[in-house]
Amino acid sequence: MTGTERKVFQKYYPPDFDPSKIPRAKGQKNRQFVQRVMTPFNMQCNTCHEYIYKGKKFNMKRETAEGETYLGLKLFRFYFRCPNCLAEITFKTDLENCDYQNEHGATRLFEAVKLYQDQQKQVDEQEAEDAKDPMKMLEKRTMQSRQEMEEMGNLEDLQESSRTKECIDTIGFLSSTDPHIAQAQRIKMMEDEDDRMARELMGITSEGRIERRIKDDEDNSDGADEDDKDIPGPSASVVPSTSSMLKPAIPKLGMDDSGNSRKRNEQRDRFAGIKLIKKAKPSEPSTSSTASSTSSAPPPLPSSAASSGLSLLADYGSGSDSD
C-alpha cells in the first residue's frame, strides 16, 4: 500500500476479499500497552517521600486486571515510576465510585471530595440498616423532634436579645466606653473648673466685667452701713455712687462701733416728732413772717433726705430765736 492509498478514507476491496484469511500476529494474553496518562490524585512516594501532584503526565503501562470486573466491565491497572527515586507505583480504575484506587508504592493524600464521598456512603449504609428496624426509626424521629425544639428555643432567645439591643444607643455606649474620649472629657471638665475658680478669684462676671465686693465678717459693720444709708448727711445724694460702694466703710471719730447703732436709734426716736419751720427772709415784711409762722408746718422730710440729728437741732434752735 502506498502513501497516498493510506490517507484515503474509502479503500477498494475486491469481490473475492476474505478477511478471515488475513494472518494475525500472535501475542501474550495479558499484554501491556504504553499510554500517556495524567495522575488522577495527589500522592506521596513511600520510598523517597516525593510529592506527586494531580495532573502530572507520565508514560504509563496499562494492563487488564485479571479476574476483576464490575457489571461485566473490565478494570485496568496502570504502572509508572517515581520521578525522584524511580520506585514503581501502581493504581487501577474504580468504576463503582467513578474514581481511581491506589494500590501500592505511594500514599494518597487528603482530598475533600473523596472524604465527602466516603462519609456519604457510610451515611447511606447506616440509613439502610435503620430502615429495617422500626425501633431505631422511632428513636431517630424522637431525637430529631427534640433537636428541632432546642433549635427553636435558641432562635427565640436570640430574637429576644436582639430586641433588647435595639433600644441601646450604640454610638453613645461606644463613646462612653472609649478611653480616649473619656480622658478628653475629664480634661475639659478640669479646665472648665479651673477657669471658673479663676473668675471667682479675679471677680470677673459671666459678661466679662470686673467687680470687687468686700465681705465683712462682723455684723456690726453691716448694721452701721445700713443706718448710714437710712440717715444720710445734708450733702449726701440719694443714690450712692459706684465708687462709694467699692470703698470700705471708715469709722467716725468719737463713736464706738459697738454702740453706734444703738445711739442712732435713740436719736431717731428723739427727733421723730419734730416739725421743721422755714426761716423768714429779711427782705420780706413782718406780715409775711407772721403769716408763715401761723401757717401750717410742712410735712416732715423722708428719712432718705433728712439731715443728721445735730443739724436738725441747730436749725430748730435758730428758728425759735428769730421768732
UniProtKB/TrEMBL annotation:
HAMAP family: YJU2
Acidic residues bias (residue ranges): 217-229
Keyword Zinc: yes
GO cellular component: U2-type catalytic step 1 spliceosome
Keyword Nucleus (UniProt): yes
Gene Ontology molecular function terms on file: metal ion binding
Binding residue positions for Zn(2+): C45, C48, C82, C85
Annotated localization: Nucleus
Family the UniProt entry places it in: Belongs to the CWC16 family. YJU2 subfamily.
Quaternary organization: Component of the spliceosome. Present in the activated B complex, the catalytically activated B* complex which catalyzes the branching, the catalytic step 1 C complex catalyzing the exon ligation, and the postcatalytic P complex containing the ligated exons (mRNA) and the excised lariat intron.
Region (Disordered): 203-323
Keywords: Metal-binding, mRNA processing, mRNA splicing, Nucleus, Spliceosome, Zinc
Organism: Caenorhabditis elegans
Name under which the protein is recorded: Splicing factor YJU2
Chief subcellular location: nucleus
Biased composition (Basic and acidic residues): 259-272
Role played: Part of the spliceosome which catalyzes two sequential transesterification reactions, first the excision of the non-coding intron from pre-mRNA and then the ligation of the coding exons to form the mature mRNA. Plays a role in stabilizing the structure of the spliceosome catalytic core and docking of the branch helix into the active site, producing 5'-exon and lariat intron-3'-intermediates.
